[in-house]
Amino acid sequence: MACRATGYRTTWKLRLFAASSLFVLALGSATHAWWSPTVGWFLVSDTGMVNTDLILIDNLDTNYLLFEKARNLKKSGMDARVVVPVAGAANDPEKPNLVSREIAEVLIRVAGLDAVEIIPIRHIEPITLNAARQLSDRLEGSNIKTVLILTSGFKSKRLYLVFQQVLAEIGIDAYCLPVWGAHRPDNWMESWHGIEEVLMQSLKLAYYRLWVLKGRDT
Description:
This protein is α/β, with parallel strands linked by helices. 55% of the residues lie in helices and 14% in strands.
């Protein structure tokens, strides 16, 4: 009898858990038009257009739209240097990796950009923080006072927080302009790739805020 009673209670707990989970999923799906844009915009930093000294194309995750945006900014009259980081070579991190450099050069050429500076970046975890540090080392002592970062929309808050903190240490102001593709704050839940992107960037933002950047403040 004791075994039967225990099994009975366990079965009802499982059924209750399953029913509760289905209810939460159904409620979330039915109301996503209300809360999903808020979740999407939480990952975004948009400081707006500035007359910057340097345009940094975030090339840690290759995205042609960023190169296209840089071209449009230059055509609109923005007189700024354009910098594209690529992975450093394994045997000599001070030189660009051959494949990464050629991919960047193709994107630069297709976008119609001129006079772009390709700089090698050592991929050391945490990658975004160390990329910002390496750029800071290159810019320290230069006449650069402002940097405009072009990056994917849902990645923009994390990159802005990191580069803002690192570049401020050498007296450079960081700005960020998110560039949007198919997934935006108002439609990211309409495809699995959009959901995957928001979940991944939410986890990365939390990691940087709670551990990486917090550690730099202490």
